[in-house]
Specification:
Structural class: mainly alpha
Distance between the termini: 15 Å
Number of domains: 2
Order of helices and strands: HEHHEEHH
Shape: elongated
CATH topology of the largest domain: Arc Repressor Mutant, subunit A
Number of helices: 5
Strand order of the largest sheet: 1-3-2
Number of strands: 3
Strand content: 5-15%
Amino acid sequence: MSNTPSNAELSVLKHLWSAGAQSAREVQNAMGPETGWSYSTTRTLLLRMTEKELIRREDSHGLAVFSANVAKVALMGQLIRGFAANILDMDGPISATAFASSKLFTEEEAEELTRLLEDASGDGES
């Protein structure tokens, strides 16, 4: 993916992966207290993420709803590989045992992430 999400965008993606499709107001109500974002900030972020194709917008009964447009495990695998290569100067397969206790992944997703990270080819496809 050429559009690597910012930290704020990653927070929204994590929320949408967990909550499913939501309106801008629902995202704001869920994330605003923690982030301090105004509704206009949340809306601008969602629109920017739509342009970057990180999320998709669909209309449901006249209401715009947003959902993740990128797969959680594939994106996390890419981000972890990038961190390992660019920050830690690591090359080749990566052990995913450190991520097994992450609250972000189901057991099946953790297993899929392990397969992605241990794949020396690094193509991120499963």
